[in-house]
Amino acid sequence: MPLQVTALYAALLGIVGIVLMGMVGRERGRAKISLNDGNIKPLIEANRRHMNWVENVPFILLLVAIAELNGGSKTWLHVMGSVLLIARLIHPFGINTEKMMMWQRAVGTGGTLIVGLAAIVTVLWQLIAR
Q1: DSSP state letters, 68-130
Q2: C-beta of residue 77 within 8 angstroms of C-beta of residue 68
Q3: 8 Å CB contact between 64 and 119
Q4: CA–CA separation, 20 vs 16, rounded Å?
Q5: Domain assignments of the chain as residue spans, ordered by start
Q6: pTM for the whole thing?
Q7: How far apart are CA 91 and CA 76, in angstroms?
Q8: CATH topology for 4-129?
């Protein structure tokens, strides 16, 4: 069974991840730093934007893929994928070394958390309901 819904969001979120990776490379080039962050704020921010994506997106996409393989509703899968995509598009704009909490970070984190929990509950529900 092809994972058409998961594939769509994996590709779109992959674009976000590649852009964030490119931003890290750009800041490394500007700072002339190969490893670590040199305590340079733009590089720290770019690193955290990318690493936050790495820490969250693959795990949640895996859960969405499992839900899809278990016959999850395409509508529900699209809701989870759309919310995750929107959250991950907004979140990087809230990473700032000067301010702890910006609305973009709160919305991005909240949306990501909600989708992660929804995917977990969906997969557990699918297992229990069988």
Answers
A1: HHTT--HHHHHHHHHHHHHHHHHGGGG--SS-S--HHHHHHHHHHHHHHHHHHHHHHHHHHH-
A2: yes
A3: yes
A4: 6
A5: 4-129
A6: 0.94
A7: 22
A8: Four Helix Bundle (Hemerythrin (Met), subunit A) (1.20.120)
- Token code pair at residue 41: 């704020």
Q: How many angstroms separate the CA atoms of 27 and 6, rounded?
A: 31
Distance CA 20, CA 14 (A): 10
In whole angstroms, what is the distance from residue 8 CA to residue 14 CA?
A: 10
Structure tokens at 51: 């690493």
What number of other Cβ atoms are within 10 A of residue 119's Cβ?
25
* Token reading at 10: 């994996």
Nearest-angstrom CA–CA distance, 83 and 121: 16
Both tokens of 30, joined, read 């500007």
pLDDT digits (tens, 9 = 90+) for 4-34: 999 999 999 999 999 999 999 999 999 999 9
